[in-house]
Amino acid sequence: MNGYPVSLTEVWAKDGEGGIDLTEKVLHVIENAENHFAPLYDGNGIDSGENPQNPPKCSRTILKERWDV
């Protein structure tokens, strides 16, 4: 599907055995795919801002990118 790996899971019916294919695909992507990760905040906590009129950078980014909808 659009170049993304897909896996049918049956963890409800087969417990952990039903998720092995998904696990293998996730691990393959983690180990081999190009990564553009960048943290939203400096590591002091996602809600490190005290002043509601001046929210921390991560909150402004979430609102700007509309990830809250």
UniProtKB/TrEMBL annotation:
<dbReference type="GO" id="GO:0004329">
    <property type="term" value="F:formate-tetrahydrofolate ligase activity"/>
</dbReference>
<protein>
    <submittedName>
        <fullName>Formate--tetrahydrofolate ligase</fullName>
        <ecNumber>6.3.4.3</ecNumber>
    </submittedName>
</protein>
<dbReference type="InterPro" id="IPR027417">
    <property type="entry name" value="P-loop_NTPase"/>
</dbReference>
<keyword id="KW-0436">Ligase</keyword>
